Amino acid sequence: MPHDEFDVVVIGTGAAGLAAAQSLAQTGLAFVVLEARERPGGRAWTTTLGNGESADIGCGWLHSAEANPFAEIAQRQGRTLDKSPPPWSRPGAQVGPLKDRMAGFAQAIGQFRERVESRPQDAPDVACDALLDPGDPFNPLIDAVSTWYSGAELAKISAADLALYEDSGVNWRVREGFGAVIAELAEGLPIRYGCPVRAIDRSGAILSIETVQGRLRAKAVIVTLPSDVLAAMPDLFRPALPDKTQAALDLPLGLDDKLYMELTGPHDFAADTRAFGALARATGAYHFCPLGRPLIEAFFGGELAEELERGGEAAAWEFASDELAGLFGSDFRARIRPLHFHGWRADPFARGGYSYARPGRAGSRAVLAAPVETRIFFAGEACSTTSFSTAHGAYETGLRAAEDAVGALRR
Ligand SMILES: Cc1cc2nc3c(=O)[nH]c(=O)nc-3n(C[C@H](O)[C@H](O)[C@H](O)COP(=O)(O)OP(=O)(O)OC[C@H]3O[C@@H](n4cnc5c(N)ncnc54)[C@H](O)[C@@H]3O)c2cc1C
Measured from the CA of 392, which atom of ligand 1 is nearest? Predict the structure, then answer.
């Protein structure tokens, strides 16, 4: 085959793109992976902080861990799985003055989830806030949890979609970083970095893919762009695919941003403990000493994250240090310093955190995932109907897209 002609072009090296590429590598087909950034992993990204500790800026938890393909991959890579349960599954992990309220909160959020999950599948969809118990004092905190879980407030989210999410309740981590596990999948694959795709011309018998590094020709393409990136590129396909643009618009990325802080005198806090900044308004979740490290991971979601991101690290730091000083006293400010903040909304190759479905739009995941002309295949977390918003969901859609592409080419 000539240099720039391939059986399959994969776009993106996140969990979905790397799963597809690993699968194609077993087939003997000619393929290449195009990645806009200079690193693999996409929204999976482990970095080293200023104090030498490693940290996951994107995904950190292997959700539904006992069935999560990344558990086996991490072990194969010789990494260390940490199976200690997360703070959100241990009411006793709460620290600070609000800890006495956590039993009541666990009951309130448990009942809310039960209402989401027990809705009949054929009931008309509603926004999740319709399922709150009116007047429950914990409603603002349930809404805050939604901003961490789904990246958005309950009023924006389809209850039908949320009810389809499968979660075994088992959550593990990788000591060396979840992002590092996913990035390692890129080793040995034919990847062109710094190569954003600008257009996919599907008017001819062979697809023509336009990138900043020139044109490539392919029989099939696997598109793993985040939904907000797809939605922002209505002219990506020529001719356009308006159903895909609409599906991407119906599956927007919520926002979650992390601020890592150094904590001096960490031994006052047990490993993997947690505090919420407030009960009755949008607030941060503060994870103390993750994996026993002298850090606090502040997690901001939804509108609060949007606002803090607009102000950059300084705004996130000011908000977090004010909330922590409110919980632990003003002397606490002297014990913390900011180490790393990443704004996923402003990141041009992510444009947000993870997808949720707008009310009435749960069916958009299948629309987004559906192949076009048996030569344009779609993958990525937003295409998963049961594990959306997760790295393992993205991975599974990548495997499926590769299988479909190989099947189509061999037909
Ligand atoms: C703060 C945060 C915390 C999270 N926590 C968890 C967690 O604990 N557990 C979990 O399972 N998941 C978590 N997630 C979600 C998880 O990271 C994502 O669902 C998953 O990584 C998405 O993989 P993907 O392959 O679908 O997309 P991506 O990883 O976004 O991959 C898409 C790729 O396409 C590339 N790209 C974009 N535009 C172009 C272009 N024009 N041309 C070529 N390439 C392009 C991008 O650079 C990227 O590499 C978290 C995400 C965030 C942001």
Answer: 11
Q: Which atom of ligand 1 is nearest to the CA of 196?
A: 42
Tell me which residue of 339, 175, 177, 341 sits closest to 264, measured CA to CA.
339
Q: Is the CB of 353 under 6 A from ligand 1?
A: yes
User: Hunting for tokens 């018998």 — which residue is that?
Assistant: 205
Q: Is any atom of ligand 1 closer than 6 Å to the C-beta of 182?
A: no
At 77, list the tokens.
């890579």
Separation of first and last alpha carbons in the chain: 20
Residue 342, ligand 1, Cβ within 6 A: no
User: What pLDDT is stored for residue 1 in this prediction?
Assistant: 62
Task: Please work out whether the CB of residue 224 comes within 6 Å of at least one atom of ligand 1.
Answer: yes
Give yes or no for a contact between 257 and 316, defined as CB atoms under 8 angstroms apart.
Answer: yes
Express each pLDDT in 86-136 by its tens digit: 999 997 899 999 899 999 999 999 999 999 999 998 999 999 999 999 999
Ligand 1 binding pocket includes 55 (Cβ within 6 Å): no
- DSSP reduced 3-state for 253: strand
Mean pLDDT of 166-195: 98
CB 329 within 8 A of CB 254: no
271 CA → ligand 1 middle, Å? 27
Contacts of 5 (CB under 8 A, 6+ apart): 30, 206, 216, 217, 218
Specify the 3-state DSSP secondary structure of 277.
coil
Q: How many CB atoms lie within 10 A of CB 106?
A: 15
pLDDT (tens digit per residue) in 226-281: 999 999 999 999 999 999 999 999 999 999 999 999 999 878 999 999 999 999 99
Q: How far apart are CA 319 and CA 330, in angstroms?
A: 13
pTM of the model: 0.98
Rounded CA gap, 388 and 380, in Å?
8
- DSSP annotation of 372 reads B
